Amino acid sequence: MTARRIDGKAAAAALRERVAAGVAAFRAKAGRAPGLATVLVGEDPASAVYIRSKNRATAEAGMESFHHQLPDTISEAELLDLVGRLNADPAVDGILVQLPLPGHIDASRVIETIEPSKDVDGFHAMNAGRLATGLPAMVPCTPLGCLQMLKDELGSLSGANAVVIGRSNIVGKPMAQLLLGESATVTIAHSRTRDLPDVVRRADVVVAAVGRPEMVRGDWIKPGAIVIDVGINRVPTDDGKGRLVGDVAFDEAAEVAAAITPVPGGVGPMTIAMLMRNTLVAAHRRAGLNDPEGL
Ligand SMILES: Nc1nc(=O)c2c([nH]1)NC[C@@H]1CN(c3ccc(C(=O)N[C@@H](CCC(=O)O)C(=O)O)cc3)C=[N+]21
């Protein structure tokens, strides 16, 4: 392996410390703690794990957390009603409804019901549009974490060839907008892209967010590129426990790249730290305070 291994856990811990300091300052100014409401519908074990780490991180940062666990038999109307109550609750600065939702609930309807100023996931069309037009927005946590790691590695992204693999509303599209905002030359590749390996070979920066285990091979990577692996795929192992791999064949890519994020320990922990950051930012904006600095 020649590549530097980008330590997402360490970067996340450092960010969470800055957020905790910002929370203490906010409490002194506003006389209350920032509050994050999480909503989990159903009992998917992986989702329950993520929600637990989010709620633990919220408490560690000195913020208030309000968790709502709902049965997967809940109707869409009941869920929309809960979102409405959270929108109206002054103690709630951020609302996160864990995705995916059961098939009988229209996720986009739920997302569009969240008050945009409390949309700490940055999934509401208002926030997507504000990001695209360069207005202050709530920005999705995963792309924001990826951008932070890229800036820590490269300083400036100006003029860099960046290829984002994946066009989802929650990662690919906002990632492309953030990179464009940093003056990178951005290509969004996806399942219909022709000659994907050749497209990726031109990239100084690769962000892989496709959800296919180890799809991106070492010989797709330009020597010296920075590789950010958003994928979190559980694959079977002989002992039956399974193991997590990314969308990038790590060992191969690490022979060629200048730096690469591992899975686990890369993008995942930064996503949670950025959720804490977004909640603190939302609290400031809702309280009429300037955005906290140095986050
Ligand atoms: N409304 C909504 N917002 C989300 O941000 C959201 C969501 N729904 N649904 C599910 C996905 C997934 N997600 C992860 C966050 C952290 C890790 C993470 O910290 N992973 C650890 C490993 C955890 C493990 O061992 O399973 C790591 O990569 O090191 C993973 C996944 C947020 N999501």
Describe this structure in words.
The protein has 295 residues and is α/β, with parallel strands linked by helices. The protein folds into 2 domains: 31-117, Rossmann fold (3-Layer(aba) Sandwich); 141-267, 3-Layer(aba) Sandwich (Rossmann fold). The chain is built from 10 helices and 11 strands. The chain has helices at 8-30, 45-60, 76-88, 107-113, 125-133, 141-154, 172-181, 196-201, 250-254, 267-286, and strands at residues 4-5, 35-41, 64-70, 94-97, 161-165, 185-189, 205-208, 226-229, 233-235, 243-245, 259-260. It has a 6-stranded parallel β-sheet. Strands 3-2-4 form a 3-stranded parallel β-sheet, with helices on both faces. Helix 1 (8-30) runs parallel beside helix 10 and helix 6 runs parallel beside helix 7. The two termini are 32 Å apart. The model has no long low-confidence stretch (mean pLDDT 97). 5,10-Methenyltetrahydrofolate binds next to helix 2, strand 4 and helix 10.
What are the salient characteristics of this protein?
10 helices; three-stranded parallel sheet; Rossmann fold; alpha/beta; 42% helix; single chain; six-stranded parallel sheet; 295 residues; binds 5,10-Methenyltetrahydrofolate; 2 domains
